[in-house]
Write a structure and sequence with these properties.
Length: 275
């Protein structure tokens, strides 16, 4: 099983190095495609000659256009996209490969994500459930892109990102996939890291505008029953054990240690993300 990982890049050199390192040590057959939109921060001084990746430097119409370009170039059996401020944990892709091998009918799978600060210190653990369309539209997408993996046949079905979105395109994409009947599953282990840098798109005004736009596309009944949709989601999380955490270890690359993973122990993990 061969993986293709796509990373959109623009002016994120310090974080991109860490993302690349976390893919390179996975120990599985893979290609890592970096779609750089013309970085001016020194990224191109080293990216073009980095043997770990296939680098494509070209102007695009935003992050989702860059991802689409990479997905069209991808040749793997299982695809994913990893943003510059994200990483894979050790053994992540092996766990995903084993899951897909054991579930040949599943086209998209989600792992769990650890949220860390800029120094790699633990903030929270985000377990996940398979998403539901109404909740995704009227509330938010609960799966994280760093821990989203899908078979090649998803894009062969024409399911690319809507490039009119600049921040919330993953939520709009997920709604379309659910409506198209793409079967989804849960890997059931920590696979990924998301770094809360303070500059993440999820906190921008543009993101809020696009979330509102997505909500307006939801059925009128879903909008009217928003609080019931939220209650149902919280009940699913409770029943699915999302709020219950067990101690664990993790290892990641940091700006202070870009060439070697730094190990951490979390004795009292939490689900709650305090921005």
């Amino acid at each position: 099983m061969r993986f293709s990982i796509v990373t959109p890049s623009l002016g994120q050199s310090q974080w991109l190095r860490l993302a690349l390192a976390s893919v390179a040590d996975q120990g599985v057959e893979h290609e890592h495609l970096v779609q750089d939109a013309g970085s001016k921060d020194g990224t191109l001084d080293w990216l073009r000659t980095d043997a770990r990746v296939k680098a494509f430097v070209e102007q695009d119409a935003g992050m989702y256009d860059g991802i689409n370009r990479g997905l069209r170039r991808a040749s793997g059996d299982v695809l994913s996209y990893l943003n510059c401020d994200e990483q894979y944990l050790p053994g992540a892709l092996k766990a995903v490969a084993a899951y897909f091998a054991a579930h040949p009918d599943v086209d998209m799978a989600f792992g769990y994500t650890l949220i860390v600060d800029e120094e790699g210190r633990f903030l929270c653990q985000r377990k996940t459930l398979t998403p539901l369309p109404w909740h995704t539209q009227v509330a938010h997408l609960t799966t994280l892109t760093a821990a989203t993996f899908f078979r090649r046949r998803v894009i062969e079905g024409g399911h690319f990102f809507d490039t009119s979105f600049r921040c919330a395109g993953d939520a709009e994409w997920m709604v379309r996939l659910m409506r198209a009947g793409v079967k989804m599953g849960i890997v059931g282990c920590n696979t990924s890291i998301f770094t809360h840098t303070g500059d993440n798109l999820s906190r921008t005004a543009r993101m809020k505008e696009e979330i509102h736009r997505l909500a307006q596309q939801a059925p009128a009944l879903a909008r009217r029953l928003r609080w019931l949709v939220l209650l149902h989601h919280w009940a699913r999380r409770f029943a699915g054990g999302v709020y219950f955490q067990s101690p664990f270890n993790y290892a990641l690359y940091t700006r202070a240690s870009p060439d070697r993973r730094v190990a951490h122990r979390v004795d009292r993990p939490t689900f709650w993300w305090k921005w």
